[in-house]
Amino acid sequence: MELFLRGVAVYLFLLALFRVLGKRSLAETTTFDFVLLLIVGEATQQALLGNDFSVTNALVLITVLMGIDMVFVKLKGRYKKLDRLLEGTPLILVDHGKPLKGRMKEARVDTEDIMEAARLTHGLEQMNQIKYAVLERDGQISIIPLAEGKTGE
Amino acid sequence: MISHDMRTFHRIEKIEHTLELDEKLSHQLKGWNVQRACSVLILTVIVLTTLGLFGNGWLSRKQLASGGATLQYEKFLRYEKEMTVTWRVSGKDEIELLIPMDYLDAFKIEKIIPESHETHLADRNVVYTFKVENGGEATIYFYLNPQKTGTVVETWQINGQDFKIAHFIYP
C-alpha cells in the first residue's frame, strides 16, 4: 500500500509541477534543463523506492506508475475537459508574419524560439515567411510557412 | 486579481485563423493565472524551506530550559530522516531520563551518546540513568529516526522535571 501511495504521490506531484511550470519547460532541453531533469530524477528515486532496493520493489513500482499512466490516458480519452486540463491547448503565436507579443509573453516564448523552429523545420529566414507559428500541447513550436513567393505584413 | 485578469485578457491578441485547432483562449487565460499563483507558491515554499518549515532551520529549532536542564530538538521532522535530541544538564551526579513508550513507538533509537549507565522499564516508560562525575555539565545526545508520520506530542522527564516535546513528521 505504501509503495502505491508513494508512486501516486510522486507521479501527481511531478505532473502538477511540470504542468504549472509551463509547456516550454520540458520542450526546450538546454544544458541547464538537462541538469535539472537529472537532479529531479535522482531526488525522485529516493522518494519512490524508500530504503527498499529489492528488484520486487522496483518492478512493482514501475507497474504502479504504468498503471497510473494508463488510467490517465483512458480518462483523458473519455473526458475532454480533463484532457485540456492535463495537456493544455495549442496557442497561435505568429499570424501572417506578425508575432503576437501578448501571447508570446504569457507563454514565455520569444522571437528567437520561433525563428529557431522556423529554421529547423522549414529553413525559413524571416519572420514574414511564417504564416502561423503554433505552440503545441507538448511545448514544441510548429511552423506553417506562407506559400512560395508570398510574405506576411 | 480581476483587473489583472482583464488586463491579460485585453493584451492577448484575438485573431481569425484558418487552422483546424481549438485554442480555447479562456482556458489559456485560466492556465496562466494558475501558473502565476503557483510561481508565488513555489517561491513561498522555497523561503519557508530555508527558514526550516521542513526541518533544520529557525522555524524548526526548539529549545526548552528548566531546573538546570536544557533540551534542544527539531519540531519539524521528515519520515526516516535521523534527528538529534540534545540534553544539557548541570550540577547533577546522576541523571534519570524517562521516555514514554508511546513516543518510542514513533521513533527508532539509532544511538545514545554517551551510553546510559542503566536502562529499565517503569510504567510504560523507558528509564535511562546516566552517571556524571563531580556533577559537572553533561551533554546527552539521542539520535532518533522517525518511523511514523504526523504529530507526536509526548512528555519526557529528566530528574522529575517534565519537558513536553512536540514534533510534526512529514511523510
UniProtKB/TrEMBL annotation, chain A:
The terms describing its cellular component in GO are: plasma membrane
Instruction: Please state every residue range assigned to the domain named YetF-like N-terminal transmembrane.
Output: 11-69
Topology versus the membrane? Multi-pass membrane protein
The UniProt keyword set, sorted, is:
Cell membrane, Membrane, Transmembrane, Transmembrane helix
Q: Please verify whether the record's keywords include Membrane.
A: yes
InterPro entries for this protein? DUF421 (IPR007353), UPF0702_alpha/beta_dom_sf (IPR023090), YetF_N (IPR048454)
* Localization: Cell membrane
Key word Transferase present: no
YetF C-terminal domain boundaries: 79-148
Ranges that cross the membrane: 58-75
* Family listed: Belongs to the UPF0702 family.
Q: What is this protein called?
A: DUF421 domain-containing protein
**From what organism does this protein derive?**
Parapedobacter koreensis
Automatic annotation (TrEMBL), chain B:
Q: Which domain of life is it from?
A: Bacteria
Sorted alphabetically, which keywords does the UniProt record give?
Answer: Membrane, Transmembrane, Transmembrane helix
Q: What are the transmembrane regions?
A: 34-54
What is the recorded name of this protein? Uncharacterized protein
Q: What species is this protein from?
A: Parapedobacter koreensis
